Amino acid sequence: MSFLDKVWYKKLGVLNAPVILPLLPLSAVFSLITKIRRERYKSHRKFSLRVKPIVIVVGGIAVGGTGKTPLCISLLQRLSDLGYTVGLLSRGYKGKSKEYPLVVTTASNVEETGDEPLLIKLSVKEKATVVVDPNRERGAQYLEKLGVDVIVTDDGLQHYALERDIEIIVIDAQRMLGNGFLLPAGPLREGEWRLNSADIVVTNGNPAEPRKNYQSMHLVPSPAVSIESFCSNQGYHDYLQKGTNVVALAGIGNPTRFYNTLKSCGYNIVSTIDIGDHGVVSKQILINNSKKYPIVMTAKDAVKYAKYKLDNLYVLNVEAVLSERFYQIVADKLYDLTSKE
């Protein structure tokens, strides 16, 4: 268990109180700043851009991985199947391009796009246009010019400069809201009250205390396949046998969830490579570890290492599975919004 897991994702107690209590004044300041910022947008003292396409924000109120990207992929695929022309907007965290907006293709450079936008494009292929722009308003306007009907933003719940029509908040069913405090004493960007203002709250997994209006999502893993098979879209082959001893690599916000998934799939984890969310390890580290055991990584990590053409690297991909009720709620809201035009 990481330090943050012990501090942020445990109720206030004897062990974490010495760390949390001194940070509470900073959390109060953070809360005040975010409240003032929200009120300025709400009162129109700060400009918020409205674009013609319907904007669906998929975001969170807690830092770290909650499963937003798999949900975005599933949502884009379903909306495309329903006949909408859809686009995905991302700020492309840690990506650096010379020009923006940047349209992502399956052959794009991950150093330019960032890992999540490239993964999404590899997953949805031609079903959606994926655009990266640190300036979300400019990116949304670009997608509007391309003629999309619906824009899905990967994260950006707190980016109030872009108006949204539907808000979907994703929370981890095991971690939930942690200790309930705002940054830096806790993991929250906004308080629990924010869940009540969202159109849909999705829990990644089944929460210990289910709420009637929450929709559950489950990340269903596929068998681990070679990184070449996964990233080249050649089809899933070269499977890694269950019972194999592996090194687990996870550059995501909640690596423990990935490790547990690997174990549930029948793989034996002999060691882990923890690099933090969106982190990158050197090619030499991959070479050294892959000589001993197969390295199994997340799909988000795979797009960063496929270029090395190394053997003994595998990917455990997951797909978001949600109830038809979830998709019906989204479809109904889209219908209501389009019928008003």
Question: How is this fold's topology laid out?
Answer:
Elements: H1 3-8, H2 17-20, H3 24-42, E1 54-59, H4 68-81, E2 86-90, E3 102-104, H5 110-113, H6 115-124, E4 128-132, H7 136-145, E5 150-154, E6 166-172, E7 200-204, E8 214-221, E9 225-226, H8 227-231, E10 245-250, H9 255-264, E11 268-274, H10 283-290, E12 295-298, H11 299-305, E13 313-316, E14 318-322, H12 324-339
Parallel strand pairs: 1-5, 1-6, 2-4, 2-5, 6-7, 7-8, 10-11, 10-12, 12-13
Antiparallel strand pairs: 3-4, 8-14, 9-13
Helix pairs in contact: 4-6, 6-11
Quick summary:
The chain has 341 residues and is α/β, with parallel strands linked by helices.
Structural class: alpha/beta
CATH architecture of the largest domain: 3-Layer(aba) Sandwich
Give the overall shape.
globular
- The name of the CATH topology of the largest domain is Rossmann fold
Number of strands: 14
CATH class of the largest domain: Alpha Beta
Query: For this structure, what is the CATH homologous superfamily of the largest domain?
Result: P-loop containing nucleotide triphosphate hydrolases
Rounded radius of gyration (Å): 20 Å
Give the tally of structural domains.
2
Q: If helices are DSSP runs of H or I spanning 4 or more residues, what is the number of helices?
A: 12
Task: List segments where confidence is low: pLDDT < 50 over at least 5 consecutive residues.
Answer: none
Binding site for ATP: 62-69
Catalytic activity: a lipid A disaccharide + ATP = a lipid IVA + ADP + H(+)
Pathway: Glycolipid biosynthesis; lipid IV(A) biosynthesis; lipid IV(A) from (3R)-3-hydroxytetradecanoyl-[acyl-carrier-protein] and UDP-N-acetyl-alpha-D-glucosamine: step 6/6
Protein name: Tetraacyldisaccharide 4'-kinase
